[in-house]
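User: Show me a protein chain along with its predicted structure.
Assistant: Here is one chain, sequence first, then structure tokens.
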Amino acid sequence: MLRRLFKRVFSSPFRPLYDEARLLPKLRRSILFVIFGNVFGNLFSVITGVGGTALTGYAEALGAGDFVFGVLNGIPLAAALMQIPASMLVSRGHRRKRYMLTYGVFSRALWIVVGLVPFFTPVQPAWLRLWGVIFLVGISSVTGAFINVCFTPWLADLVPLRIRGRWISLRDGIIAAANVLVGLVTAFLLDNIPGFLGYAVVFVLGGVLGVLDMFCFLFVEEVYTQPPMPIKLFKSSRQIFQDKPFFRFMLFWTAWSFTANLSSPFLGRYALSMGLSYMQLTLCGQIASALTTVSVVWLWGRLLDQYGSKPVLWVSCLLAALTPAFYLFSTPNNIWPTLLYNVIGAFFWSAANLTSTSMQLSTTPDDQRPVYIAMFSCFTSMLGSFLGVLSGGALLEWAHVLVDSGRLAFLGPMADAYKLVFLLSVVTRVGIVLLFVPRM
């Protein structure tokens, strides 16, 4: 009796899904290591990611203005262009594991060096440290292009379509719970270790977590539902543009990413400038977001499997588009705009991201999935996220000039460069959803 109760309490939450799909034991073990890798990889992204607390504070300490801050955050997005040649190499044979364990490990390990830049470069000229960091982040991003084009098709081959929505939601819930711990640790280190030493410790930790992510794939079976086929870039590109369901979704997500990145990378920077500490920003940001995701992502997974992608995408994107408006009510040392943005935003962003992953996997043919995923990443990252971040930085620089000149004094509390850009992001995001989603 006790043994049966123990098994029920401590059994894997994924087991009913695997039983439903009748997965073999070796595939179940492989997927377990995928989950471990995804947890480590996401913790790496929490520390090193675009607009994250650590990178935002690091850029500030290095003296980056809004536009250069946009460049630093945009470099990883621009590097998605390398996913096209990477996908062509990956598609030639059974080499996903080899690429993940060479290019992927090198990419992640470079972040250990990123945190140490101030300790081996001179103080003068002042730009050397900042652009040294940007250069290393660029190299890491270029070599990391192999990770996405290897992992996403690999995941599609491991997890059957009929359980994929629920599996991804369960995985995302586990990841969000882990984010709580690493977010608290990161904030504590940054608040209590002064100067560049705190950033060095945090980025070394991030690099180690990223390397552990890659090492987990040593134990994952390299399975293929379709044999690898060499990709002819021109033919495949033409096929992608003629594939209306995939192309329409790619076009929507590109426009959505552009409007989202006009504001998203700068929200944390603005919150810090309004007097929040790293711990306050983390508690109201990463922690609040993670707890919300854990609470609701399973529900979105069920709705996705039951009703399909379009209804979930419609509701989640439309309401997520409104959330930066909370920052329009920001005042010094006020945590509520940040908290509300992250709690309500995570409620709907978790659904939008879940739907995006599901639609990428379900609208791509098995034999051409690497190049489809690479093209999707290139379009959404380059023309969407990268241009959005750069445009947001440029708009902020221009808005600061207008505000400082006094020409916008008639706007009262809204005469704030950040608030103007956040408002623009909200309006354009809502417009993109209303324009694109009904036609998909």
